[in-house]
Automatic annotation (TrEMBL):
SUPFAM superfamilies: C-type lectin-like. Residues 32-148 form the C-type lectin domain. This is C-type lectin domain-containing protein. It comes from the Eukaryota. Keywords: Disulfide bond.
Amino acid sequence: SFNTNLQSCDLSNINSSLTVTNASSLKLLGKHEKWCQNLCLCSTWEDALDYCRERNSDLISISSQMEQDAIAALVNTTNSPNVWLGLRRSRMFGFWFWIDEKPLSYEQWVNGSSSQLPACKRCAVMSQANNFSWIDVSCSEEHTFICRNK
């Protein structure tokens, strides 16, 4: 369950608006981007997705090096080791897909690709400990997350 006192704020840039949880300090990166401060919420991947969708948004997807760098800069301001991505592995076919239906045209896996086993690791996080690369983890783990407004 979520902390009912949770506050959220928007991260706005030229292309999109993001809602961020668990940013520990206010940071301005570029003239159109605002980062949020003093927010903390950890949840499973499904609960994070539900939280975002209740607010007409989705878990963050990353489609370019520029977006990767911007999100990495944000994650770097937090004390969270991992942040959920809106990236999931198909249970039936094993391929990865963004839940907002964007094409998986950019990838930043820690070893160049996701691990193939075990199949129970069907969700992805951006990992501070791995230089902000992506790692696959169990969806039942609890991590902080970022929502992108639709």
